[in-house]
Amino acid sequence: MTTSQIVQILFAGLTLGSVYAMVAFGLSLVYRATSILNVAQGEFSMVGGMTAIYLTVGIGLPIPVAVVAAVLFAAALALGMERFAIRPAAHYPMLIVIMVTVAVSMIVQGLALVLWGRDSFSLPAFLGETPVSVFGASILPQAIGVLVICIVVSLGFWAFFDRTMLGIAMRASAENPLAASLVGIDPRRMTMLAFVLSAGVGAVAGVLIAPIVFMSFMSGITITVKGFVAAVVGGINNNLGVVVGGLTLGLLESLAAGLLPSLYKDVITLGILVVLLCLRPNGILGAR
Amino acid sequence: MRRWLPLAILGAIVALVPLPLGESYLFGFVVLVGIFAIAAIGVDLVLGYAGQITLGHAGFMAIGAYTTAVLTVRGVPSLAAFIAACVLTGVIAYLVGAPLMGVLTHFHVAIATLALGVLIYSFLLVGGDLTGGFTGIQGVPRLSLGGLEVNGDLGYYVVVWVVTLVLYVVARNIGDSQVGRILRAIESDELAAQTSGISVARYKVRVFVLSAVYASIAGSLLAHYMRYVSPTQVDILTSFDLVTMTILGGKGTVLGGILGAAFLKLLPQFTEFFKDYRVLVNGLIVLTVLLFFPRGIVGGIELLATLPRRALSLLRRAGAREPGAAVAGIVEEQE
């Protein structure tokens, strides 16, 4: 393998990994605010990506407008999800709550199927089309842009949970909703906020991944699984872990894609997940 | 006696259905209902009894269907292929289930089974000549038992529904046995079950393996009945279908698997509307049933069945205010 090929694979992996890390951040956000792991997380990315594709390729709106609309649409769905599915199930056992998120996942897929049909679509690279040469490999500015956005989002997350009152309140309300409400935090507002924020991050991830992979109404499932692998590899409560997990997964995947036929890519990721869940359920960096 | 009432009614319906429907195109769908009911009962064993979310059961159906197809196309007898499929599925379910059911949360199990379903589906696509990629395997021989070849819809109907009813009784008896009570204890409170000395993980793994074998049986029957296997028969949407059937019918009831399968497989035949709305409708059904009717169709039937008795006791309470009626009530109670 030549240097330029290695650099190519490295960049592809980091781009993909950044997106997975962002999906994992979304999962982690809801988990830390509500102790719920949201099976529908990937659907926000799917909706974000599909909306952006529809508005730009389909209708011809400029990219920034489409991105904002995509994020708002996903956030609105999350709002509806929290209000009409999660809140009514608040006092049910965790099994039912997770099943409710599965049901929401099916509903969002069903909506996407009705709105956009069964076909797969892709978004043109919107952060610049002319490749930049790095060590002989041609890298799209898109890839660098995705990396930068991922770094900004992870720093934002760290600042939010460790440095702002709201982030700390959110953690408190997940830890013990009753005690949190005694010191004046409204757990229901925290839950709603967590869902909306996670949908926003998820939608951004979906828009970023739309030029790299094909999107269809089924894409959310794989995105959820990959975000979850990233979270599990790193440990879901650990900001750094989530980023490391996402990048590792992205690199492994692009390496597999470079060496093996493309259909094997998912086999490898999912194989990693199953093996990993068996050996280190709390993550490589997490406590055993 | 009441224990056998659902089975008696079910048996009667199964025996009578061929009379009006025997010639109709709908009859084939009734065979499919039986096949999917088996897999849905399997899902119910995990979801309703052990309280674990499984989103990958179509993957086990796939192992059953493809093992049967691969072997019978090469001349292996149906029954031998069927047993091989069950064993292979059981072993895979054990290898995956043993570590999964140990320490993991509902979400871990949900995602891991989801991933397993996608993984098996991807294997079907990359399996080359063995699995036939996107097109699958054509020309699966008819089911033959001891040299007797099963022919036509009626033949398959009889075989499939006999198997379904037997597996229904097996699942229900497990539910009513000590193992079933242990599983219910686990479902309602794992920690409490653990502290009472129950080896939670061991029971969860056993029921997971059994439920995978149920799905495998359904897969083998599907391969023989359709005469072909393809990845779309056993994709993730099929796993979601199975979960929907179980929840809609009433999780933890066994009978619910059959009723849910009947509802979900037959209703689309009566309305064109369903086609592209299948996923959306499934999702809405699951959400509504989870939030408002936790015991699904079976819960509704139970409510209807007890309605006369409730009305009677209500009347009696009202009647007690009449002179003499209270005495009659007491006399009745002593008898």
Task: Write up what this structure looks like.
The complex is a heterodimer of chains A (288) and B (335). Chain A is mainly α and 288 residues long. Chain A has one domain (3-279): ABC transporter involved in vitamin B12 uptake, BtuC (Orthogonal Bundle). Chain A is built from 11 helices and 2 strands; from the N terminus they run ααααββααααααα. Chain A has a two-stranded antiparallel sheet. The model of chain A has no long low-confidence stretch (mean pLDDT 85). In chain B, a hairpin with a 2-residue loop joins strand 1 and strand 2 (148-149). In chain B, strands 1-2 form a two-stranded antiparallel ribbon. In chain B, helix 3 crosses helix 11, helix 3 (26-49) runs antiparallel to helix 12 and helix 7 packs across helix 8. Chain B has helices at residues 5-16, 18-21, 26-49, 57-73, 78-103, 106-126, 152-176, 178-188, 190-195, 200-226, 236-249, 255-270, 274-292, 296-319, 325-334, and strands spanning 144-145, 148-149. At the A-B interface, helix 4, helix 9 and helix 11 of A face helix 5, helix 6, helix 11 and helix 13 of B.
What labels describe this entry?
heterodimer, A: 288 residues, mainly alpha, ABC transporter involved in vitamin B12 uptake, BtuC, two-stranded antiparallel ribbon, 11 helices, B: 335 residues, two-stranded antiparallel sheet, 15 helices
Q: Topology of this structure?
A:
The complex is a heterodimer of chains A (288) and B (335).
Chain A: H1 3-34, H2 41-59, H3 63-86, H4 94-116, E1 132-134, E2 137-139, H5 141-163, H6 165-175, H7 177-182, H8 187-209, H9 219-234, H10 239-259, H11 264-279
Helix pairs in contact in A: 1-5, 1-6, 1-8, 1-9, 1-10, 2-3, 2-4, 2-8, 2-9, 3-4, 3-8, 5-6, 6-8, 9-10, 9-11, 10-11
Chain B: H1 5-16, H2 18-21, H3 26-49, H4 57-73, H5 78-103, H6 106-126, E1 144-145, E2 148-149, H7 152-176, H8 178-188, H9 190-195, H10 200-226, H11 236-249, H12 255-270, H13 274-292, H14 296-319, H15 325-334
Antiparallel strand pairs in B: 1-2
Helix pairs in contact in B: 3-7, 3-10, 3-11, 3-12, 4-5, 4-6, 4-10, 5-10, 7-8, 11-12, 11-13
